[in-house]
Amino acid sequence: GVTTNDSPDADGVLNHAEITTVQRVAGDLVVDVTLEAAAGDYRIELFGNAAADPTGFGEGETFLGGSTVTHTGSGAETFTLTVTSGPTILSTTATQDLGGGSFGATSEFSPAVPSPDLVIVNSTGDTSDAGTGDGQCDTGGTNSEGDPECTLRAAIEEANDPTTPVDTVWFSIPVSDTGHTAGVWSIAPATDLAALSEVLTIDGSTQPGYTTTPLIEIDGTALGGVNPGIDITAAASTVRGLAVGGFPADGIGVKADNVVVVGNHIGVDALGSSDFANAAHGIAVSNTALNVTIGGSTAADRNVIGFNGGAGISVDNVDTTVIIGNYIGVQADGTSAAANDRGVS
Asked: Largest alpha-carbon pair distance within the chain?
């Protein structure tokens, strides 16, 4: 297990540093790190991770940067590091710097801390955010592991608040969640999800265990109405790695420029073989949306679009929409039938 920090640091195990604040400044991450240790020089290193360790502490997946600092030995002292990184889960270590290229003991990893533009959905629940505008996705309840709960609904609500830096949604939902069955996590909104009104990337491929097909299903079978399951009204947004189906209208609606829709199953279940139809179109691109990209040249970017009651893809503005590399009207195996009412129209 993880060794608890002691004060003063006298147990023979170097205290781990603590990430106390993280800010996004001019594209960089400015990170305040607090360390309680004996007087001396220490090498503080920052790492980025796609997920936290199950303990809640970090790992060393990607080295982001480091700095040697001088500690006076006067209790907890704070040091500031600046690194370049996209949205990530941060962790840090401290190592005794003995000088001349020699190093001593290294601490364990610190607790993991998301960058401020990132929130992580950890529940298939449907509760709203307890208080938007604070940059925290938190319903006020707990998930199946007893951690503060972040639902997809709450994540979108927090991202839609223009006063917060949140622009990225990842997933890390435990297998103990009640929405988990056979390696797939199903999120079933009871009412329409809010439209994406601020630029946002929703990336289902971040759910632990993901390889090539979605693990997160967005199931609209409980809904009525005419709104798309995922309604994109903010330019430069991206939806990746989800299975979207069961909605009474379009699966995904695109109403803004420079939107990217990749790696999804739309109207096809997460396994890629069963009917998960949306009643209208799989993807509907409005005539106000320019430079939209649906699919890509790799298997990871391929959308599988089938079984929908309307077109697989409905495009009003054909001149600027790129549709490439998708399976339309077939299942994920590329051959078995999954007919939409029509393909692309």
From this structure: 72
Distance in angstroms (rounded) separating the CA atoms of residues 261 and 130: 29
Residue 9 CB partners (closer than 8 Å, separation 6+) = 15, 36, 37, 38
* Beta-sheet pairing, 168-171 with 118-121: parallel
Question: How far apart (Å, rounded) are the C-alpha atoms in residues 318 and 321?
Answer: 5
Instruction: Give me the phi and psi of 293, to 5 degrees please.
Output: -120, 125
Beta bridge partners of 95: 43, 106
Task: Name residue, tokens 């223009």.
Answer: 162
* 3-state SS record for 229-297: CEEECCCCCEEECEEEECCCCCCEEECCCCCEEECCEECECCCCCCECCCCCCCEEECCCCCCCEEECC
CA dihedral 338, 341, 343, 344 (to 10 degrees): -150
The values of phi and psi at residue 300, to 5°, are: -65, -25
Round to whole Å and give the CA distance between 310 and 322: 20
Residue type, 308: N
Cα dihedral across residues 116, 121, 122, 125: positive or negative: positive
Q: Indicate whether 58 pLDDT > 70.
A: yes
Q: What are phi and psi of 152, to 5 degrees?
A: -60, -40
Strands 113-114 and 252-254: unpaired
pLDDT in tens, 289-344: 999 999 999 999 999 999 999 999 999 988 899 999 999 999 999 999 999 999 99
* Cis bond before residue 228 (omega within 30° of 0): no
Structure tokens at 221: 């079978």
pLDDT, tens digit, 9 for 90 and up, residues 108-157: 999 999 999 999 999 999 999 999 999 999 999 999 999 999 999 999 99
Amino acid at 288: T
3-state secondary structure of 165: coil
CB atoms < 10 A from the CB of 220, how many?
27
